[in-house]
Specification:
heterodimer; A: 192 residues; alpha+beta; 16% helix; 43% strand; B: 326 residues; 3-stranded antiparallel β-sheet; 10 helices; 17 strands; globular
Protein backbone atom coordinates (compact mmCIF):
# COMPACT_ATOMS: atom_id res chain seq x y z
CA UNK A 1 0.00 0.00 0.00
CA UNK A 2 1.14 3.48 -0.73
CA UNK A 3 -0.17 6.77 0.57
CA UNK A 4 0.74 10.12 -0.80
CA UNK A 5 -0.01 13.68 0.14
CA UNK A 6 1.14 16.64 -1.89
CA UNK A 7 1.22 20.19 -0.72
CA UNK A 8 2.01 23.11 -2.98
CA UNK A 9 3.48 26.23 -1.41
CA UNK A 10 5.60 29.22 -2.30
CA UNK A 11 8.98 29.95 -0.81
CA UNK A 12 11.70 32.42 -1.37
CA UNK A 13 13.96 31.30 -4.19
CA UNK A 14 17.04 32.57 -2.42
CA UNK A 15 16.32 30.44 0.61
CA UNK A 16 15.90 27.44 -1.63
CA UNK A 17 19.21 27.97 -3.30
CA UNK A 18 20.88 28.36 0.06
CA UNK A 19 19.47 25.04 1.23
CA UNK A 20 20.61 23.32 -1.91
CA UNK A 21 24.17 24.57 -1.57
CA UNK A 22 24.20 23.76 2.12
CA UNK A 23 23.47 20.13 1.33
CA UNK A 24 26.02 20.19 -1.40
CA UNK A 25 28.79 21.54 0.77
CA UNK A 26 28.29 18.97 3.49
CA UNK A 27 28.59 16.14 1.03
CA UNK A 28 31.43 17.28 -1.11
CA UNK A 29 33.56 14.36 -0.15
CA UNK A 30 31.09 11.84 -1.50
CA UNK A 31 30.77 10.73 -5.08
CA UNK A 32 27.79 12.33 -6.70
CA UNK A 33 25.58 10.55 -9.19
CA UNK A 34 23.11 12.16 -11.49
CA UNK A 35 19.98 10.48 -12.76
CA UNK A 36 17.42 11.49 -15.35
CA UNK A 37 14.13 11.88 -13.52
CA UNK A 38 11.80 13.02 -16.25
CA UNK A 39 11.79 14.22 -19.80
CA UNK A 40 8.68 15.47 -21.51
CA UNK A 41 7.38 17.95 -24.01
CA UNK A 42 4.56 20.39 -23.31
CA UNK A 43 3.35 22.28 -20.30
CA UNK A 44 0.25 24.12 -19.15
CA UNK A 45 1.61 27.23 -20.85
CA UNK A 46 2.19 25.33 -24.08
CA UNK A 47 -1.42 24.22 -23.95
CA UNK A 48 -2.56 27.75 -23.26
CA UNK A 49 -0.57 29.07 -26.22
CA UNK A 50 -1.98 26.36 -28.46
CA UNK A 51 -5.51 27.35 -27.41
CA UNK A 52 -4.84 30.86 -28.65
CA UNK A 53 -4.63 29.42 -32.14
CA UNK A 54 -8.29 28.45 -32.21
CA UNK A 55 -10.52 30.69 -34.29
CA UNK A 56 -10.09 33.35 -36.91
CA UNK A 57 -11.94 36.07 -38.74
CA UNK A 58 -12.50 37.65 -42.12
CA UNK A 59 -10.59 40.63 -43.33
CA UNK A 60 -12.42 43.41 -45.18
CA UNK A 61 -11.88 41.58 -48.43
CA UNK A 62 -13.55 38.49 -47.02
CA UNK A 63 -10.34 36.46 -46.93
CA UNK A 64 -10.08 34.26 -43.88
CA UNK A 65 -7.37 34.73 -41.30
CA UNK A 66 -6.80 31.67 -39.15
CA UNK A 67 -5.13 32.22 -35.81
CA UNK A 68 -3.35 28.90 -36.11
CA UNK A 69 -0.73 30.37 -38.40
CA UNK A 70 0.33 32.74 -35.64
CA UNK A 71 0.20 30.32 -32.73
CA UNK A 72 1.64 27.14 -34.20
CA UNK A 73 5.08 26.31 -32.82
CA UNK A 74 7.31 23.95 -34.75
CA UNK A 75 8.98 22.87 -31.51
CA UNK A 76 7.12 22.22 -28.26
CA UNK A 77 8.71 23.25 -24.99
CA UNK A 78 10.81 20.29 -23.73
CA UNK A 79 11.54 19.82 -20.05
CA UNK A 80 14.38 17.72 -18.70
CA UNK A 81 14.51 17.01 -14.94
CA UNK A 82 17.59 15.52 -13.28
CA UNK A 83 18.47 14.45 -9.75
CA UNK A 84 22.01 14.65 -8.44
CA UNK A 85 22.31 12.47 -5.37
CA UNK A 86 24.51 13.96 -2.66
CA UNK A 87 23.89 11.58 0.21
CA UNK A 88 21.75 8.46 0.39
CA UNK A 89 18.85 10.65 1.53
CA UNK A 90 19.41 13.99 -0.14
CA UNK A 91 19.81 15.24 -3.64
CA UNK A 92 19.63 18.29 -5.83
CA UNK A 93 16.82 18.46 -8.34
CA UNK A 94 17.64 20.47 -11.38
CA UNK A 95 16.62 20.76 -14.99
CA UNK A 96 15.71 23.01 -17.81
CA UNK A 97 13.01 23.77 -20.35
CA UNK A 98 13.84 24.66 -23.93
CA UNK A 99 10.98 27.10 -24.39
CA UNK A 100 9.09 27.47 -27.63
CA UNK A 101 7.94 30.19 -29.93
CA UNK A 102 5.66 30.90 -32.81
CA UNK A 103 5.06 34.06 -34.79
CA UNK A 104 2.91 35.69 -32.12
CA UNK A 105 4.07 34.26 -28.81
CA UNK A 106 7.15 33.08 -27.02
CA UNK A 107 7.73 30.83 -24.04
CA UNK A 108 11.15 31.61 -22.62
CA UNK A 109 13.63 28.86 -21.77
CA UNK A 110 13.50 27.96 -18.10
CA UNK A 111 15.77 26.61 -15.39
CA UNK A 112 14.63 24.46 -12.50
CA UNK A 113 16.53 24.04 -9.25
CA UNK A 114 15.62 22.44 -5.94
CA UNK A 115 16.39 19.70 -3.48
CA UNK A 116 15.01 16.41 -2.32
CA UNK A 117 15.44 14.89 1.12
CA UNK A 118 13.93 11.90 2.81
CA UNK A 119 13.76 10.24 6.21
CA UNK A 120 12.62 6.80 7.32
CA UNK A 121 10.25 7.02 10.31
CA UNK A 122 10.37 3.22 10.44
CA UNK A 123 11.83 0.52 8.22
CA UNK A 124 8.67 0.27 6.13
CA UNK A 125 8.06 3.92 5.46
CA UNK A 126 9.68 6.86 3.81
CA UNK A 127 8.80 10.51 4.16
CA UNK A 128 10.27 12.67 1.45
CA UNK A 129 10.22 16.38 0.83
CA UNK A 130 11.18 18.19 -2.33
CA UNK A 131 11.14 21.85 -3.18
CA UNK A 132 11.83 23.18 -6.65
CA UNK A 133 11.93 26.63 -8.11
CA UNK A 134 11.61 27.57 -11.79
CA UNK A 135 13.23 30.62 -13.25
CA UNK A 136 12.04 31.92 -16.63
CA UNK A 137 9.56 30.11 -18.83
CA UNK A 138 7.17 33.03 -19.13
CA UNK A 139 4.60 33.06 -21.93
CA UNK A 140 4.42 36.38 -23.77
CA UNK A 141 1.96 37.09 -26.57
CA UNK A 142 3.07 39.53 -29.23
CA UNK A 143 0.85 42.17 -30.88
CA UNK A 144 0.02 42.53 -34.57
CA UNK A 145 -0.03 45.55 -36.82
CA UNK A 146 -3.53 45.94 -38.23
CA UNK A 147 -4.17 48.13 -41.25
CA UNK A 148 -7.70 49.52 -41.22
CA UNK A 149 -7.31 51.46 -44.45
CA UNK A 150 -8.40 55.08 -44.09
CA UNK A 151 -9.00 54.51 -40.40
CA UNK A 152 -5.31 54.01 -39.75
CA UNK A 153 -2.82 51.38 -38.68
CA UNK A 154 -2.78 50.20 -35.10
CA UNK A 155 -0.87 47.86 -32.88
CA UNK A 156 -3.51 45.35 -31.79
CA UNK A 157 -4.14 42.04 -30.17
CA UNK A 158 -4.08 39.81 -33.26
CA UNK A 159 -7.07 37.80 -32.08
CA UNK A 160 -9.31 40.78 -31.37
CA UNK A 161 -8.49 43.00 -34.34
CA UNK A 162 -11.76 42.37 -36.16
CA UNK A 163 -13.96 42.71 -33.12
CA UNK A 164 -15.84 45.71 -31.94
CA UNK A 165 -13.30 46.74 -29.33
CA UNK A 166 -11.20 49.82 -29.98
CA UNK A 167 -7.83 48.73 -31.42
CA UNK A 168 -5.81 50.17 -28.56
CA UNK A 169 -8.09 48.48 -26.02
CA UNK A 170 -7.34 45.05 -27.43
CA UNK A 171 -3.74 45.25 -26.22
CA UNK A 172 -4.99 44.86 -22.65
CA UNK A 173 -5.92 41.30 -23.48
CA UNK A 174 -2.55 40.09 -24.69
CA UNK A 175 -1.66 37.01 -22.72
CA UNK A 176 1.27 37.25 -20.32
CA UNK A 177 1.52 34.22 -18.06
CA UNK A 178 4.11 32.76 -15.73
CA UNK A 179 4.73 29.09 -15.09
CA UNK A 180 4.43 27.62 -11.63
CA UNK A 181 7.53 29.12 -10.03
CA UNK A 182 7.73 27.17 -6.76
CA UNK A 183 6.64 23.64 -5.95
CA UNK A 184 6.75 21.77 -2.71
CA UNK A 185 6.12 18.03 -2.64
CA UNK A 186 5.60 16.04 0.49
CA UNK A 187 5.44 12.32 -0.07
CA UNK A 188 4.83 9.55 2.43
CA UNK A 189 5.33 5.97 1.37
CA UNK A 190 4.37 2.97 3.43
CA UNK A 191 5.26 -0.49 2.25
CA UNK A 192 3.68 -3.62 3.71
CA UNK B 1 -39.75 77.20 -53.78
CA UNK B 2 -40.36 76.15 -50.21
CA UNK B 3 -40.74 72.52 -49.25
CA UNK B 4 -41.22 72.99 -45.54
CA UNK B 5 -44.62 71.37 -45.41
CA UNK B 6 -43.86 68.45 -47.66
CA UNK B 7 -42.18 65.95 -45.38
CA UNK B 8 -43.18 62.37 -45.63
CA UNK B 9 -41.94 59.60 -43.45
CA UNK B 10 -40.72 56.81 -45.64
CA UNK B 11 -42.41 54.00 -43.79
CA UNK B 12 -45.03 51.55 -44.79
CA UNK B 13 -46.29 49.97 -41.62
CA UNK B 14 -48.32 47.03 -42.66
CA UNK B 15 -50.77 45.11 -40.59
CA UNK B 16 -49.14 43.70 -37.52
CA UNK B 17 -47.90 40.23 -37.98
CA UNK B 18 -47.73 37.70 -35.25
CA UNK B 19 -44.06 38.14 -35.38
CA UNK B 20 -41.68 35.33 -34.71
CA UNK B 21 -39.25 37.65 -33.10
CA UNK B 22 -36.34 37.62 -30.84
CA UNK B 23 -33.92 34.86 -30.63
CA UNK B 24 -32.68 36.48 -27.50
CA UNK B 25 -28.97 36.10 -26.93
CA UNK B 26 -28.00 36.30 -23.32
CA UNK B 27 -25.05 38.49 -22.67
CA UNK B 28 -21.94 36.81 -21.43
CA UNK B 29 -20.60 37.12 -17.96
CA UNK B 30 -17.64 39.46 -17.55
CA UNK B 31 -15.01 36.77 -17.17
CA UNK B 32 -16.45 34.24 -19.50
CA UNK B 33 -14.20 32.82 -22.16
CA UNK B 34 -15.49 34.26 -25.36
CA UNK B 35 -15.09 31.86 -28.22
CA UNK B 36 -17.60 33.40 -30.51
CA UNK B 37 -18.41 32.87 -34.12
CA UNK B 38 -21.11 34.95 -35.71
CA UNK B 39 -22.29 35.82 -39.15
CA UNK B 40 -21.57 32.48 -40.68
CA UNK B 41 -18.17 32.47 -39.09
CA UNK B 42 -17.30 35.93 -40.23
CA UNK B 43 -15.90 36.78 -36.82
CA UNK B 44 -14.50 34.41 -34.30
CA UNK B 45 -12.48 35.45 -31.35
CA UNK B 46 -10.76 33.41 -28.75
CA UNK B 47 -9.87 35.36 -25.69
CA UNK B 48 -10.90 36.20 -22.20
CA UNK B 49 -12.47 39.56 -22.61
CA UNK B 50 -14.82 41.61 -20.49
CA UNK B 51 -18.37 41.71 -21.70
CA UNK B 52 -20.95 44.10 -20.42
CA UNK B 53 -23.93 42.33 -18.96
CA UNK B 54 -27.03 43.65 -20.56
CA UNK B 55 -30.56 42.61 -21.23
CA UNK B 56 -30.26 43.82 -24.82
CA UNK B 57 -31.07 41.02 -27.21
CA UNK B 58 -30.07 40.34 -30.77
CA UNK B 59 -33.36 40.23 -32.64
CA UNK B 60 -34.18 37.92 -35.48
CA UNK B 61 -34.68 40.85 -37.85
CA UNK B 62 -31.13 42.05 -37.30
CA UNK B 63 -28.16 41.01 -39.37
CA UNK B 64 -26.03 38.35 -37.63
CA UNK B 65 -23.28 40.94 -37.84
CA UNK B 66 -24.90 42.89 -35.05
CA UNK B 67 -24.46 40.09 -32.55
CA UNK B 68 -20.84 39.80 -33.56
CA UNK B 69 -20.36 43.50 -33.10
CA UNK B 70 -21.80 43.37 -29.63
CA UNK B 71 -19.64 40.46 -28.57
CA UNK B 72 -17.03 42.69 -27.01
CA UNK B 73 -19.55 44.90 -25.27
CA UNK B 74 -18.96 47.99 -27.38
CA UNK B 75 -22.21 49.21 -28.83
CA UNK B 76 -21.88 52.69 -30.11
CA UNK B 77 -20.79 54.57 -27.02
CA UNK B 78 -19.29 57.99 -27.56
CA UNK B 79 -21.39 58.58 -30.65
CA UNK B 80 -24.60 60.61 -30.89
CA UNK B 81 -27.32 59.65 -33.34
CA UNK B 82 -29.81 62.42 -33.98
CA UNK B 83 -33.10 61.14 -35.35
CA UNK B 84 -34.74 63.87 -37.43
CA UNK B 85 -38.26 62.58 -37.67
CA UNK B 86 -41.89 62.83 -36.57
CA UNK B 87 -42.17 62.91 -32.82
CA UNK B 88 -45.28 65.07 -32.47
CA UNK B 89 -47.99 64.12 -34.94
CA UNK B 90 -51.08 62.11 -34.13
CA UNK B 91 -50.16 59.49 -36.71
CA UNK B 92 -49.22 56.20 -35.13
CA UNK B 93 -48.90 52.66 -36.39
CA UNK B 94 -48.18 49.25 -34.96
CA UNK B 95 -45.19 46.99 -35.23
CA UNK B 96 -42.95 44.76 -33.20
CA UNK B 97 -39.17 44.98 -33.05
CA UNK B 98 -39.15 42.05 -30.68
CA UNK B 99 -40.14 44.02 -27.62
CA UNK B 100 -43.83 43.31 -28.00
CA UNK B 101 -46.44 44.97 -30.18
CA UNK B 102 -46.32 48.73 -29.90
CA UNK B 103 -48.20 51.57 -31.56
CA UNK B 104 -45.93 54.55 -32.04
CA UNK B 105 -45.15 57.57 -34.16
CA UNK B 106 -42.80 57.19 -37.10
CA UNK B 107 -39.92 58.81 -35.27
CA UNK B 108 -40.44 56.71 -32.20
CA UNK B 109 -40.10 53.60 -34.33
CA UNK B 110 -36.93 54.69 -36.10
CA UNK B 111 -35.45 55.87 -32.81
CA UNK B 112 -36.19 52.54 -31.20
CA UNK B 113 -34.59 50.68 -34.07
CA UNK B 114 -31.38 52.73 -34.03
CA UNK B 115 -31.13 52.35 -30.27
CA UNK B 116 -31.47 48.58 -30.62
CA UNK B 117 -28.66 48.40 -33.16
CA UNK B 118 -26.33 50.66 -31.20
CA UNK B 119 -27.66 50.49 -27.64
CA UNK B 120 -24.82 52.43 -26.11
CA UNK B 121 -25.04 55.35 -28.50
CA UNK B 122 -26.63 58.57 -27.34
CA UNK B 123 -29.90 58.98 -29.22
CA UNK B 124 -31.37 62.44 -29.74
CA UNK B 125 -34.81 63.17 -31.14
CA UNK B 126 -35.36 66.19 -33.37
CA UNK B 127 -38.94 66.74 -34.46
CA UNK B 128 -38.91 67.60 -38.14
CA UNK B 129 -42.05 69.67 -37.98
CA UNK B 130 -40.20 72.54 -36.34
CA UNK B 131 -37.89 73.16 -39.27
CA UNK B 132 -35.27 74.53 -36.91
CA UNK B 133 -31.54 74.10 -37.12
CA UNK B 134 -30.20 70.66 -36.16
CA UNK B 135 -27.42 71.06 -33.61
CA UNK B 136 -24.58 68.57 -33.43
CA UNK B 137 -23.41 67.03 -30.18
CA UNK B 138 -19.80 67.13 -29.11
CA UNK B 139 -17.88 64.11 -30.38
CA UNK B 140 -18.91 61.96 -33.29
CA UNK B 141 -22.32 62.52 -34.88
CA UNK B 142 -24.70 60.55 -37.04
CA UNK B 143 -27.91 62.05 -38.46
CA UNK B 144 -30.74 59.74 -39.39
CA UNK B 145 -33.15 60.96 -42.04
CA UNK B 146 -36.02 58.56 -42.53
CA UNK B 147 -38.00 61.11 -44.49
CA UNK B 148 -37.96 62.96 -47.77
CA UNK B 149 -38.71 66.48 -48.95
CA UNK B 150 -41.01 66.19 -51.94
CA UNK B 151 -42.34 68.80 -54.26
CA UNK B 152 -43.12 69.22 -57.92
CA UNK B 153 -40.45 67.82 -60.17
CA UNK B 154 -38.35 70.01 -62.37
CA UNK B 155 -36.68 72.47 -60.03
CA UNK B 156 -32.97 72.56 -59.50
CA UNK B 157 -31.74 72.01 -55.97
CA UNK B 158 -30.46 75.55 -55.66
CA UNK B 159 -33.94 76.88 -56.33
CA UNK B 160 -35.16 75.30 -53.13
CA UNK B 161 -35.53 77.55 -50.10
CA UNK B 162 -34.40 75.21 -47.41
CA UNK B 163 -35.53 75.58 -43.83
CA UNK B 164 -32.71 75.89 -41.28
CA UNK B 165 -33.27 72.22 -40.47
CA UNK B 166 -32.43 70.81 -43.89
CA UNK B 167 -29.94 73.58 -44.60
CA UNK B 168 -27.95 72.52 -41.55
CA UNK B 169 -28.14 68.85 -42.49
CA UNK B 170 -26.95 69.51 -46.03
CA UNK B 171 -24.17 71.67 -44.63
CA UNK B 172 -22.99 68.86 -42.33
CA UNK B 173 -23.01 66.37 -45.20
CA UNK B 174 -21.10 68.83 -47.38
CA UNK B 175 -18.51 69.62 -44.74
CA UNK B 176 -18.23 66.04 -43.56
CA UNK B 177 -19.03 66.93 -39.97
CA UNK B 178 -21.63 64.17 -39.45
CA UNK B 179 -22.52 60.90 -41.09
CA UNK B 180 -25.92 61.42 -42.75
CA UNK B 181 -27.95 58.26 -43.24
CA UNK B 182 -30.81 59.00 -45.62
CA UNK B 183 -33.64 56.60 -46.41
CA UNK B 184 -33.63 56.17 -50.18
CA UNK B 185 -37.39 56.26 -50.64
CA UNK B 186 -40.24 53.84 -51.21
CA UNK B 187 -41.32 54.57 -54.75
CA UNK B 188 -39.23 51.98 -56.56
CA UNK B 189 -37.49 54.68 -58.59
CA UNK B 190 -33.87 55.76 -58.77
CA UNK B 191 -32.73 58.04 -55.94
CA UNK B 192 -34.03 61.52 -56.69
CA UNK B 193 -36.25 60.19 -59.48
CA UNK B 194 -39.68 61.50 -60.35
CA UNK B 195 -42.67 59.77 -58.83
CA UNK B 196 -46.18 61.05 -59.20
CA UNK B 197 -44.81 64.25 -60.68
CA UNK B 198 -42.71 64.92 -57.58
CA UNK B 199 -39.10 64.49 -56.52
CA UNK B 200 -37.35 64.12 -53.20
CA UNK B 201 -35.21 67.24 -53.18
CA UNK B 202 -33.44 66.24 -50.00
CA UNK B 203 -32.10 63.25 -51.91
CA UNK B 204 -31.02 65.50 -54.72
CA UNK B 205 -29.34 67.96 -52.36
CA UNK B 206 -27.31 65.20 -50.73
CA UNK B 207 -25.97 63.65 -53.92
CA UNK B 208 -22.20 63.98 -54.07
CA UNK B 209 -21.86 65.00 -50.45
CA UNK B 210 -18.97 63.17 -48.76
CA UNK B 211 -20.80 61.88 -45.70
CA UNK B 212 -24.24 61.24 -47.17
CA UNK B 213 -25.32 57.62 -47.48
CA UNK B 214 -28.52 56.66 -49.27
CA UNK B 215 -29.98 53.52 -47.80
CA UNK B 216 -32.19 51.14 -49.72
CA UNK B 217 -34.05 48.13 -48.37
CA UNK B 218 -33.53 44.46 -49.07
CA UNK B 219 -36.36 42.08 -48.37
CA UNK B 220 -34.04 40.06 -46.11
CA UNK B 221 -30.52 40.01 -44.73
CA UNK B 222 -28.37 38.43 -47.42
CA UNK B 223 -25.89 35.62 -47.09
CA UNK B 224 -23.74 33.96 -49.72
CA UNK B 225 -26.00 30.93 -49.65
CA UNK B 226 -29.28 32.81 -49.36
CA UNK B 227 -28.84 35.95 -51.36
CA UNK B 228 -31.12 38.94 -50.83
CA UNK B 229 -32.88 41.12 -53.34
CA UNK B 230 -34.10 44.66 -53.29
CA UNK B 231 -37.45 45.06 -51.58
CA UNK B 232 -40.24 45.68 -54.06
CA UNK B 233 -40.87 49.18 -52.78
CA UNK B 234 -37.30 50.39 -52.33
CA UNK B 235 -35.75 53.13 -54.42
CA UNK B 236 -32.57 52.00 -56.10
CA UNK B 237 -29.26 53.65 -56.90
CA UNK B 238 -29.88 54.40 -60.57
CA UNK B 239 -27.33 55.35 -63.20
CA UNK B 240 -25.75 58.32 -61.42
CA UNK B 241 -22.26 57.26 -60.36
CA UNK B 242 -22.32 59.76 -57.50
CA UNK B 243 -25.38 58.02 -56.07
CA UNK B 244 -24.04 54.54 -56.72
CA UNK B 245 -20.87 55.28 -54.78
CA UNK B 246 -22.88 56.40 -51.72
CA UNK B 247 -25.74 53.90 -51.84
CA UNK B 248 -26.00 50.94 -49.46
CA UNK B 249 -28.67 48.35 -48.87
CA UNK B 250 -29.63 46.48 -45.70
CA UNK B 251 -32.24 43.89 -44.85
CA UNK B 252 -35.61 45.19 -43.66
CA UNK B 253 -37.36 42.05 -42.57
CA UNK B 254 -40.89 43.36 -42.34
CA UNK B 255 -42.26 39.86 -42.26
CA UNK B 256 -40.84 39.65 -38.74
CA UNK B 257 -41.59 43.15 -37.52
CA UNK B 258 -44.59 44.31 -39.48
CA UNK B 259 -42.54 47.36 -40.40
CA UNK B 260 -41.59 47.94 -44.02
CA UNK B 261 -39.88 50.78 -45.81
CA UNK B 262 -36.50 52.36 -46.25
CA UNK B 263 -37.35 54.34 -43.11
CA UNK B 264 -36.26 51.22 -41.28
CA UNK B 265 -33.15 50.74 -43.41
CA UNK B 266 -31.57 54.10 -42.59
CA UNK B 267 -31.49 53.54 -38.78
CA UNK B 268 -29.56 50.32 -39.31
CA UNK B 269 -26.84 52.24 -41.11
CA UNK B 270 -26.99 54.93 -38.43
CA UNK B 271 -26.43 52.25 -35.82
CA UNK B 272 -23.58 50.70 -37.78
CA UNK B 273 -21.92 54.09 -38.14
CA UNK B 274 -22.19 54.59 -34.37
CA UNK B 275 -20.62 51.20 -33.68
CA UNK B 276 -17.75 51.93 -36.05
CA UNK B 277 -17.34 55.29 -34.34
CA UNK B 278 -17.16 53.57 -30.97
CA UNK B 279 -14.34 51.33 -32.17
CA UNK B 280 -12.34 53.96 -34.03
CA UNK B 281 -12.60 56.78 -31.56
CA UNK B 282 -10.57 59.21 -33.61
CA UNK B 283 -12.27 58.45 -36.93
CA UNK B 284 -13.84 61.33 -38.82
CA UNK B 285 -17.35 61.10 -40.26
CA UNK B 286 -15.80 60.89 -43.73
CA UNK B 287 -13.67 57.93 -42.66
CA UNK B 288 -16.63 56.17 -41.07
CA UNK B 289 -18.74 56.76 -44.19
CA UNK B 290 -16.03 55.45 -46.49
CA UNK B 291 -15.45 52.45 -44.25
CA UNK B 292 -19.11 51.47 -44.54
CA UNK B 293 -19.18 52.07 -48.29
CA UNK B 294 -15.90 50.33 -49.05
CA UNK B 295 -16.70 47.18 -47.11
CA UNK B 296 -20.20 46.56 -48.47
CA UNK B 297 -20.71 43.06 -49.84
CA UNK B 298 -21.92 42.22 -53.30
CA UNK B 299 -21.77 38.45 -52.96
CA UNK B 300 -24.86 38.35 -50.75
CA UNK B 301 -27.13 39.94 -53.35
CA UNK B 302 -29.17 38.49 -56.20
CA UNK B 303 -27.71 39.63 -59.53
CA UNK B 304 -25.60 42.40 -58.08
CA UNK B 305 -25.73 45.53 -60.19
CA UNK B 306 -24.45 48.90 -58.97
CA UNK B 307 -27.39 50.63 -60.61
CA UNK B 308 -29.65 48.70 -58.26
CA UNK B 309 -27.63 48.07 -55.12
CA UNK B 310 -25.00 50.80 -55.30
CA UNK B 311 -22.01 49.66 -53.27
CA UNK B 312 -23.87 46.62 -51.94
CA UNK B 313 -25.10 45.25 -48.65
CA UNK B 314 -23.56 46.91 -45.64
CA UNK B 315 -21.40 44.53 -43.62
CA UNK B 316 -20.68 45.59 -40.10
CA UNK B 317 -18.24 42.75 -39.49
CA UNK B 318 -16.17 43.72 -42.50
CA UNK B 319 -16.34 47.39 -41.65
CA UNK B 320 -14.79 46.54 -38.28
CA UNK B 321 -12.16 44.19 -39.68
CA UNK B 322 -8.68 45.13 -40.82
CA UNK B 323 -7.72 45.38 -44.47
CA UNK B 324 -4.58 43.48 -43.60
CA UNK B 325 -2.88 42.21 -40.47
CA UNK B 326 0.58 40.89 -39.83
Amino acid sequence: MRERSNIGAGFCAAALLSCAFLFASTAMAQEWTTSLVDIHQGSPLSDKARDLGNGGYELQSGSWVSFSRWYHASWVDMHVDLLTQITPDTGILWGFGTGEQAEKYRIEPSLKLGFLTQIHPNPNSTLSLSVTSTIGGNLTEKPCQADYGDLGTYSVNCRLAAGEMAPEETLKYLVNAKPETMRLWLNYRLTF
Amino acid sequence: MSVNSLKFGLAAALAMLSATIASAQEALSPDEMAALCHGGGSICVSATIPVTRTTQAVQSWMSPDVGAAWAAGYKGQGVTITMVDDFSSTSRFSGNFGLGVQTQRHGEWTREEASMIAPSATIRSKDFSTGTYVPLASGRNVLNLSYGMYTTAGYSVNQIGWAPEEASIIYYATRGSAVVSKAAGNDAVAVGGVTGGQQDYLDLALIGKPTAIFVGALSSNGTTTNKAQLAWYSDYAGSNALVQSHFLVVGVEGDKTGLYGTSFAAPIISGYAAIIGSKFTSATPVQITNDLLNTARTDTLVNYNPAVYGKGEASLSRALAPVAIH
